[in-house]
Amino acid sequence: MCGIIGFTGDQPAKDIIIGGLERLEYRGYDSAGIALLDEKGITVRKRTGKVEELRKLCMNDTLDACCGIGHTRWATHGGVTDANAHPHRCGQVVLIHNGIIENYRQLVTEYGLADKLVSETDSEVVAALLDTFYEGDPEAAIKKTVKALSGAFALCIMFEDIPGTIYAIRNVSPMVATHSESGSVIASDVTALIEYSNDYFVVPEYHILKLTRDGILVTNLKGKEVKPEILTVNWDIKSAQKGGYPFFMLKEIYEQPDAIRNTVMPRVEGDLPDFTEDGIDDAIFENCDKLMVVACGTAMHAGIVGKHLIEKLLRIPVNVEIASEFRYKDPIIDEKTLTIVLSQSGETIDTLEALKLAKSKGSKTLSIVNVKGSTIARESDYVLYTHAGPEIAVASTKAYTVQVAAMYLITCRMGLVKKLISESDARKFMAKLISAPNIIEETLKDANDIKRIANHIKMATDTFYIGRGLDYTMSLEAALKLKEISYVHAEAYAAGELKHGTIALIAENVPVIALATQEDVYAKVISNIREVKARGAYVVLVSMDEKIDDPAICDKHIRIPKLDPEFTAFATAVILQLIAYYTSEAKGLDVDKPRNLAKSVTVE
User: Fold this and answer.
1) Are 443 and 493 in contact, with CB atoms under 8 Å apart?
2) Residue 227 CB neighbours (<10 A)
3) Residue 203: which residues within 8 A CB-CB, separation 6 or more?
4) How does pLDDT run across 416-457, given as a tens digit for each residue?
5) Contact, 74 vs 21, CB < 8 A?
6) HEC states along 247-262?
């Protein structure tokens, strides 16, 4: 939630910061703002809407300050207004904030801040508190302020009487920083840094950063200098650009074959899965008798695919829990439980807190994340990094399929370690997984056929996805995709449940996307399809059949290549992603930036 960036160096900061905000806009796009600092003082510009509106506002400004901070907002406290946009200025202090301050009302009362406030935000309260404490010593004011705060925060701060300098501190909410020949840069994530350096560090919690053109000083709250661990990004700025595609989401759909190859192939040794380079100890698989999978949204759906595989192939019980619910129940976990958490960003706050809870109950933890050095990765006992590269579109595509691929790897490795599958069977399993990218490439050749289906779905009020077994798990993710980027209400149902109530919603021309890729239940699904077709539904069938022209079964048929039923997930995922993408595009929507959503959910 919210994108933050700061730059101080030897170049004018305005365009650098606005360019950075454009790369961070997927983190929030309700409003955007910038504050610049030079010897003349602080200049603030901010406006509701996307970063493009801020760029227009600043177009005629001739500001040449070489130090500044910028912010894209995803509203949490207060409506979407110019006053609530960041940066917030109070007296000599200007700041930007990602997170939620839980005790902001108490702070207003305790320190008499009400007369200083012009917005409805918790963030402005922090600026007012800092200004109250500031008496010429920025570190002292910052320490006193953060000691009073309850909640999550990433703060970038400038003081009017200290030109050329940015201060920063965080708790939970992410920030990364780098220094290059151009100067010092700090941001919410590496997509805003990569233009300046492939090397960066994660800002340690409750450490104060002092950024100047000459370098970055990191000190703990006792004033002792700390040397952070330097990490390296293995992709370049082109990976965070559209590369000729109309939207990032379509580009990222087409990047899935390489993303899966990059995730799977480094973990194959002798045609078998191998986690040696990841430092993942086989003992965590050998010593567990059940698994707990915890995640949110799309990542949770990847976990459900993993549950299907592990229970069916290994006969080991797996619970999949919504992270935001998991925290507030009393989960049945012990030292014989392996907890797997999934998060693309590695910063999802509910998943992070669930991870900490699992560890407190004695469970070993394994995280599947895409961002090196992220909080979840650092907090886990073990981490399996996916190698999807940057995912800019809010709706996850390649991050989802690499998480699914990671669950396939874990399934096979666990089966080997626990001697539940033979090496021969494991090699056959891995051969099928290694071929998954080729299957996706073949499936993408039929994208134009899928595009034509969107013209019908875009007119719908409701859409239903049905399937059984693995197909039902894929339907869950498909319905989420359609809802979040096309705003068409969509629900996924186990096909056998239709006659237990849901079929009452089927009427003339209601779209039903039916998945029938599982051979053992194929006939049952076809019977369910006939039931909805008889009631006038517009049916799109996804299956491994040769072309089907029977209007009693479907209006449109999308064929996937002939596969082992346990490996249809990859082809099916791509088809369902394209249906959502083309529906959103057909409606003329901004596919990459759906309303009310942000990419990384770092607040509860």
Assistant:
1) no
2) 7
3) 154, 168, 169, 170, 174, 175, 176, 177, 186, 209, 218, 228
4) 999 999 999 999 999 999 999 999 999 999 888 888 888 889
5) no
6) CHHHHHHHCHHHHHHH
What tens digit of pLDDT does each residue of 384-414 get?
999 999 898 999 999 999 999 999 999 999 9
User: Which tens digit of pLDDT belongs to each residue from 218-267?
Assistant: 999 999 999 999 998 877 766 777 878 999 999 999 999 999 999 999 99
Counting Cα atoms < 13 Å in the Cβ hemisphere of 333 gives 27
- pLDDT-derived band at 109, boundaries 50, 70, 90: very high
β-strands 231-232, 176-180 pairing: unpaired
Q: What is the mean pLDDT of residues 204-213?
A: 97
Could you tell me the end-to-end alpha-carbon distance of the chain, in angstroms, rounded to an integer?
10
- The answer to whether the CB of 465 falls within 8 A of the CB of 491 is yes
| Residue 341, Cβ density class (10 Å: 0-12 exposed, 13-18 middle, ≥19 buried) | buried
Q: What is the residue whose two structure tokens read 């791509």?
A: 574
Q: What is the per-residue DSSP string for 368-400?
A: EESSTT-HHHHHSSEEEE-------SSS-SHHH
DSSP code at position 163: T
Write out the catalytic residue numbers. Answer: 2, 599
The answer to whether residues 290 and 316 touch, using CB atoms and an 8 Å cutoff, is yes
Gap between the Cα atoms of 23 and 346, Å rounded = 19
Q: How far is 375 from 171, CA to CA, in rounded Å?
A: 11
